[in-house]
Design brief:
The complex is a heterotrimer. By secondary structure, chain A is α/β, with parallel strands linked by helices. Helices cover 55% and strands 10% of the residues of chain A. Chain C is mostly helical. Chain C has 14 helices and no strands. Classes of the chains: A alpha/beta, B alpha+beta, C mainly alpha.
């Protein structure tokens, strides 16, 4: 065709491909980034490819994904092919239709509905069977088979229909048994459908996130789920590296299969078969070899696995030349057993979650098999009350003496509640520890000092410079009426002075979880977070609703990227993460931090601690190892490695000489010849050296938050307990508004729901939709009318022909035809005139 | 290049039926060449199509006949050369602006439209009033004998009916030229014969120029005013059906049109030719003395006579009963002749052969000499198979 | 014979049992939870709550976003599918492969990397910055719709393209032979004949768009809650299974209703649209 047209088409296709491949290009580009940012390119390196192969959690997730994909696609191919065979033989129309309809449901239904429906089933069955846990692998496998089945059936069924009906008969005629006939004749004939079904199932299974997300249980993490929890926290470039490798592999495979096949279709299918055979063979081979290797190892040595379920990026994992704590532990524990004369292989199965609520829903939904979890204080309390945790055996955690005395008794509970058919049975005088502090921190405010400048936001700048800034930069200052009461507009939004908000509009980030978002507002308004009144709820809702118009987004760990790149100017977040951001921000972004206080200098924020716990559903055989793991975390080298890595407060104190007293087997003090107690001076000095290095490494910023004596001694390690007593935000379950039976948790959830779903001004979008919808309807109506009009002349007075007529040779040109042609000629002449 | 092979058809050969009007060239191809992927499809051909004529492009598959048709329709742009329509160059005119319409090989009806809408399609595009559309569609339906089928889904029609819809759809536009690309190829034999008649009648009545593409020589001979024999991207011969049959230009044409025995011969003098070791009287002249030539003798023009009366003698190698006649293969001087005769002879029998002077046609030697016309490997079955393998272009 | 046939049918029984347990039963659970409260007592309160203005707006918003995403997908995909279908068969194979290739990478990570493109300091704004422009894109409704279009575009292109390849090229030639300009060939012939592909493309884009929850969180900054977000929140953070089930139930009805409308069009294969 003409050149111009050619260019137009190519341009259109090229633009689409740019659109489709742009994110992939970005991803590949940043996989070669030197720094760990997925936003700021600081230089070329292959570091992440190296790190990928040491990231055991990711590799494990990849392995899980592949095993799951292979198993689910094989099983669904077998069941599906058999089903297609059965369906093709079905004579009963109703049965056939019903089966087909049921089969298609998972294809039509949104994934999220399929996911939650299966989740409800598993929860129900677990309740009925009184099983506390389902193994995550089996539930996900069942879910994957379920959504793979329809695709397999729909790809195989047509092959049965296409198949020559006389084919099996011919086979029987030639002496095959029906069994042989199926395997030797029918099966090869439908093979292309089976192969297509298998590939489809495999692809779907590998890519599925939504359904796995809702159905997975404990300890089983697929790659998409891992990516999801990472994108909630932060995607490290090794994930980009992995994606790049996957992408390149698939690209190469496809290109090979495309270019070696040539033009001949038969040849192609042969080649494809060959390729499939090779791939299939190697997959099975690999599975086989892995199984054999695993079996061999397990035959000779005992394998002990400790399943740790922790926050994302909440442990020193060997990145940045740090200690890989989990590997260290494996080594240490193996040595420990060796000394005892046992040959044991120790494995840490480390999976992560993104929020306390994620953790809770996993554990409460009966996901067993976790040996160690790390909930925050309030969640620990809630889980303990619901009987989801088991007390720790402190005898097995000798290092617990190093816990800062401020945390003593913090996770001790007087009572053990058991959630037994709505009756709370109280067991008195049974004090037990349910958690060992892991970290602590506060919520503070991080801001971008290269954006909040005198020019761009003078008022806010001035406020921060004054050192007296608090929550007002994020929320504005409420304008009370004459009686000192808050005022609201008709939508329930609080009326505030928006000077700061206007300056910072669209640059504010807010927590994307109800607890912290409403908590922040409550701290700001000096409301007791643990005991709010109805008016208080109204006030905080109003405050957040007003803020919504000024907020750029509700985020959790996406905040990392946003703050580090200067995408947003100000946000409230957990102090440890704030420090991480400050140390990793882009070159042209300067981040500052302050903790919110009121005009009198009184802190207005939350103090929290996370603690290591053992769930009630933990495997009894792993208890020893779990305790060893916790104890190991309290080793100064390890504890400081973690603290340095994650920037949270280290709740351990190695400087107290009395922690180094030596005891004998009977737990009696060992005395020297002078009758004075003996101290383990060697250990003391060794630990002090660690403390020294640690302090040096952390530098000033850390000190500001965790160690300094600033006004009111916020987070002074020696006054922590006081802070916790004053500011801890407790669990709201079973907390009711005073004088009512309205649960505070319900209030929180409802207010959050209201806030989140509340209208945002999107009139433009609605109008556009309406216009387009009307245009489409108008077009259809127009076409219909036009069609009616066109049919008008012949539709009514033409007989509807009966069944397909036979080919009858027509007689020679009929008389009517001749007349018709004469008429046409005449009219032509007329029209020429 | 092949200029010498082109015979300008004389005005008289363009039979228009009843009327005797001055004939005018409507489509002209001048020196048109086309190749795909380096493969030459059309090798500089020249072709004139006259008004109101029924012209057939005939040739084996791959000879370029369909490409020629598509060049006229506008689906293919020639690499070189000009396409003229009523003396205007239309090389760059897209198909939808040309005054030609096409009946496609497999009809190519619009599956989403019923019979009426299919036929009305072209008129709808021109914004013709509904009343006129109705009238003209009904005319067309009457012409192709499909009245009462208006509402019918075209996918449910039989092959013959689809064929008629396709013709009606193409004709409703009143094109000056109708192109037909093997339109009867998918029909069975009986229906095919009937449709041939019908098509011819339609052409005669409407007076529209038909350019018809087929590989079926019988169809070509029985329907056409002019036959264009094509092979290897070249036009081998243009002429009326009788000319083509009786006076083939070269061995290819002789072989492709009907059965022929093509024997090497030497022209001794005007009206005198020698082949198979015997001197024959013939009606051809104008060759050089002792020029070697191809001699064509049609099987039905050879008489079987007693041995002593034969001009040549040979041994019968096979006899096949064909209904009207026997097909006899006779070996004469190591050359296998085909003879069609009503007399029965025995295999192995020695017979005499007699050839009348007017049964002998002399052709100049060409690139196709010695490629055709020997029945030594003849087999009905093979012939049949090669027909079935005829591929679409 | 019949006995044999019953035996053959039995091959389908494992699947039928599977479908009853893992497809039908779970859906009954959704219905059960939707119509009961926490104590398991029948109630319409959950559905009643959904009838509140705020929830109605969530549904309206989801429908609008999904609708716009579908329309945009169609507008982009149709010409692309058409142009691809007009290239040579070998080129088509490669182009179709290239369309599907991004789908092999997890959609989470692809969506995540869109953030890096759309941000105020992202790639687009860096390029625009050269021209002295800066457009705020992330955390807007447009970004969410873009995310949907990006993720589901191939599901629109592929069915349309495969419907187009099934069109006999001679039918298109016939159309232009009868006087259709290239554009009219598309509107009068190609479109009606590819309508089945369009319908399945629309379904394959609309359904996942209306129920997505990841895209809106990442590219919308949590500002524009869609049904999927609400459902996910009910199950993952608020533990209100009944409410979540009620939402899923309504979502399912919504989709079944829109499918029914679509099927009405596709039944007479373009009867309504052409």
């Amino acid at each position: 065709m003409t050149k111009k047209k050619f260019n137009w088409r190519t341009l259109c296709i090229i633009l689409t491909f740019i659109f489709l491949y742009m994110p992939i290009g970005v991803l590949i580009f940043f996989s070669f980034n030197e720094s760990d940012s997925t936003a700021v390119f600081s230089g070329f390196s292959l570091r992440w490819y190296k790190e990928l192969f040491t990231d055991t959690a990711t590799l494990n997730a990849l392995k899980n994904t592949l095993i799951l994909a292979v198993l689910s696609s094989i099983i669904s191919t077998i069941i599906g092919t058999a089903a297609a065979y059965g369906i093709s033989k079905m004579k009963n129309k109703y049965l056939k239709n019903a089966t087909m309809s049921a089969t298609q449901i998972p294809m039509i239904n949104p994934e999220i509905v399929t996911g939650i429906s299966m989740m409800l089933l598993f929860v129900f069955v677990a309740n009925v069977l009184k099983i506390s846990s389902f193994n995550g692998f089996w539930t996900v496998l069942i879910a994957h088979i379920t959504f793979n089945l329809p695709y397999v059936i729909l790809l195989v069924l047509p092959k049965f229909k296409e198949m020559d009906k006389s084919l099996p008969e011919a086979a029987l005629d030639l002496g095959c048994t029906p069994f042989q006939s199926f395997f030797k004749v029918e099966l090869p004939a439908i093979m292309p459908g089976i192969v297509a079904g298998f590939i489809m199932a495999f692809t779907l299974s590998i890519d599925d996130f939504v359904i796995s997300y809702f159905t997975t249980g404990s300890g089983f993490e697929t790659l998409p789920i891992r990516i999801y929890s990472m994108t909630k926290k932060r995607v490290t470039p090794d994930m980009y590296a992995l994606s790049t490798l996957i992408f390149v592999t698939i690209l190469v495979l496809l290109l090979i299969s495309n270019f070696t096949s040539g033009k001949n279709k038969i040849e192609l299918s042969k080649k494809a078969k060959k390729v499939m055979k090779i791939i299939g063979g190697s997959v099975f081979g690999m599975i086989g070899i892995t199984t054999i290797v695993v079996l061999c190892i397990s035959a000779t040595t005992e394998v002990k696995t400790v399943n740790v379920y922790n926050w994302g990026e909440y442990i020193s994992d060997g990145g940045y030349d740090t200690i890989d704590v989990n590997r260290e532990f494996e080594e240490w524990a193996e040595n420990y057993y060796k000394e005892k004369g046992k040959k044991v292989k120790v494995q840490v199965n480390y999976t992560t979650y993104a929020s306390n609520e994620d953790l809770y829903s996993k554990i409460a939904n009966g996901a067993g098999g976790y040996d160690i979890i790390v909930p925050s204080d309030y969640m620990l309390e809630k889980m303990q009350k619901e009987g989801l945790l088991q007390p720790l055996d402190l005898e097995k955690i000798p290092n617990c003496k190093f816990i800062n005395s401020q945390f003593d008794g913090m996770f001790l509970y007087d009572n053990t509640y058991k959630n037994d058919s709505d009756k709370i049975v109280v067991e008195k005088d049974n004090k037990k520890t349910y958690g060992i502090a892991y970290t602590y921190g506060i919520i503070g405010i991080i801001y971008n000092s290269s954006q909040i400048t005198e020019e761009q936001a003078p008022k806010a700048y001035e406020r921060i410079e004054s050192g007296e800034a608090g929550w007002e930069l994020l929320f504005g200052e409420p304008i009370p009426d004459k009686d000192g009461k808050y005022q609201y507009d008709k939508d329930g939004k609080m009326i505030v002075d928006t000077t700061y908000l206007e300056e910072l509009k669209g640059q504010i980030l807010q927590f994307n979880n109800p607890r912290d978002a409403f908590g922040a507002a409550m701290y700001y308004l000096d409301i007791d977070v643990n005991n709010p009144t109805e008016d208080d709820w109204k006030a905080v809702y109003g405050l957040l609703a007003t803020q919504k118009d000024y907020v750029q987004g509700y985020v959790m760990d996406e905040i990392y990227n946003k703050m580090e790149k200067g995408e947003a100017w100000i946000a409230a977040y957990y102090a440890g993460d704030c420090l991480s951001m400050m140390s990793e921000s882009a070159d042209d972004v300067e981040l500052g931090f302050y903790y919110p206080k009121n005009k009198d200098g009184k802190p207005q924020t939350n103090v929290f601690a996370d603690a290591m716990c053992i769930p009630a559903s933990a495997n009894q055989d792993n208890l020893e190892l779990a305790h060893m793991y916790i104890n190991f975390m309290l080793e100064p080298e390890i504890a400081y490695a973690n603290a340095e890595y994650i920037y949270y407060g280290c709740p351990y104190d190695y400087t107290n000489i009395f922690d180094y007293l030596v005891f004998d087997e009977n737990n009696e003090l060992v005395l020297d010849e002078n009758g004075l107690p003996v101290f383990d001076m060697e250990l003391y000095e060794k630990n002090l050296a660690y403390v020294e290095v640690y302090r040096e490494n952390l530098g000033e910023d850390y000190d500001i938050i965790y160690n300094a004596d600033f006004e009111n001694d916020l987070l002074n390690p020696n006054k922590l307990r006081d802070m916790f007593d004053k500011f801890a935000y407790k669990d709201l379950t079973n907390s009711y508004m005073e004088g009512t039976d309205v649960s505070n948790l319900d209030m929180l959830n409802e207010s959050w729901e209201q806030l989140k779903v509340a209208s945002t001004s999107m009139v433009g979008i609605y109008v556009t939709c309406l216009v387009i919808a009307l245009a489409i309807v108008a077009y259809i109506v127009y076409v219909q009318i036009k069609k009616r009009k066109q049919r008008r002349l012949y539709w009514a007075n033409t007989p509807t022909p009966k069944a397909k007529p036979k080919d009858e040779p027509s007689p020679d040109l009929s008389a009517t035809a001749v007349i018709a042609i004469e008429k046409a000629k005449k009219r032509d002449k007329d029209s020429q005139k | 290049m092949n200029e010498k092979k082109i015979i300008e058809p004389k005005g008289e050969t363009v039979a228009t039926g009843e009327e005797n009007v001055e004939t005018k060239k409507i489509v002209q191809l001048k020196n048109v060449a086309k190749s795909f992927d380096g493969e030459i499809i059309l090798d500089h051909i020249n072709l004139d199509v006259y008004e109101k004529e029924f012209i057939t492009l005939l040739g084996p598959s791959g000879c370029g006949k369909t490409t020629t048709l598509r060049i006229i329709a506008g689906f293919v742009t020639p690499d070189t050369g000009d396409v003229l329509f009523e003396d205007e160059r239309i090389n760059d005119l897209p198909p939808h602006k040309r005054h030609v319409n096409t009946v496609f090989q497999k009809y190519a009806l619009f599956p989403h439209l019923n019979v009426y809408e299919n036929i009305a399609f072209a008129l709808r595009l021109k914004k013709v009033s509904e009343e006129e559309i109705y009238e003209r569609v009904e005319e067309m339906l009457a012409m192709v004998n499909l009245r009462g089928f208006e509402k019918k889904d075209v996918n449910l029609l039989s092959g013959g009916q689809q064929q008629r819809v396709a013709i009606a759809r193409a004709l409703i536009n009143k094109p000056k030229v109708l192109l037909l690309d093997e339109p009867l190829g998918a029909l069975d034999l009986k229906l095919r014969k009937d449709m041939q008649n019908e098509l011819k009648n339609i052409q005669r009545k409407t007076g529209i120029t038909f350019v018809y593409v087929t590989h079926d020589q019988e169809e070509a001979l029985s329907m056409s005013d002019t036959v264009v024999v094509m092979a290897d991207g070249k036009i081998q011969q243009i002429g009326s059906p009788t000319d083509i049959y009786n006076e083939p230009e070269n061995a290819f044409v002789a072989d492709f049109i009907g059965e022929s025995n093509i024997i090497d011969g030497v022209m001794l003098d005007d009206y005198k030719v020698r082949f198979s070791g015997h001197e024959f009287v013939c009606l051809d002249k104008g060759f050089d003395k002792n020029e070697s030539v191809d001699v064509v003798v049609r099987p039905e023009d050879v008489d079987v006579v007693p041995l002593d009366k034969g001009m040549l003698t040979g041994i019968v190698t096979s006899v096949t009963f064909k209904g009207v006649h026997y097909e006899i293969i006779v070996s004469i001087k190591d050359f296998k002749w085909m003879i069609q005769s009503t007399d029965y002879v025995e295999v192995g029998q020695e017979i005499g052969v007699y050839v009348e002077p007017d049964a002998i046609h002399i052709m100049k030697k060409s690139e196709y000499s010695n490629m055709f016309g020997d029945y030594s490997s003849f087999s009905d079955e093979l012939e049949h198979l090669s027909d079935a393998n005829e591929e679409e272009e | 014979m019949t006995k044999k046939n019953i035996l053959k049918q039995a091959a389908a029984y494992p699947h039928i049992v599977w479908a009853i347990i893992f497809i039908i039963a779970p859906l009954l659970f959704v219905a059960y939870y939707a119509f009961t409260d926490k104590e398991g007592v029948f109630t319409l309160a959950n559905l009643g709550q959904l009838a509140q203005a705020t929830y109605l707006e969530v549904f309206l918003r989801s429908v609008c976003f999904a609708f716009l995403a579908t329309v945009i997908c169609f507008v982009i995909a149709y010409p692309v599918a058409y142009f691809i279908s007009r290239t040579s068969p070998s080129a088509q194979k490669i182009l179709v492969m290239l369309v599907m290739l991004p789908q092999w990478l997890n959609f989470l990570i692809r969506t995540y990397s869109w953030m890096a493109i759309l941000e105020d300091t992202g790639i687009i704004n860096i390029i625009l910055g050269v021209l002295g422009l800066n457009i705020h894109m992330i955390n807007t409704p447009g970004a969410v719709i873009l995310g949907m279009v990006y993720n589901f575009l191939p599901y629109m292109i592929i069915p349309i393209h495969s419907a187009m390849t099934k069109i006999d090229p001679r039918v298109l030639e016939a159309a232009s032979d009868l006087g259709c300009s290239p554009l009219r060939v598309v509107t009068k012939v190609v479109f009606p004949l590819s309508l089945s592909g369009v319908i399945s493309g629309i379904t394959m884009v609309f359904v996942p768009s209306i129920s997505t929850f990841y895209i809106s969180q990442k590219l919308g900054g949590g500002n524009f809650d869609l049904i999927g977000d609400s459902i996910e929140r009910q199950f993952q953070t608020q533990y209100d299974y009944n409410m979540g089930a009620a939402m899923s139930f309504v979502l399912m009805l919504l989709i079944i209703a829109s499918m029914a409308v679509m099927n009405k069009y596709s039944d007479d294969e373009g009867g309504m649209l052409v």
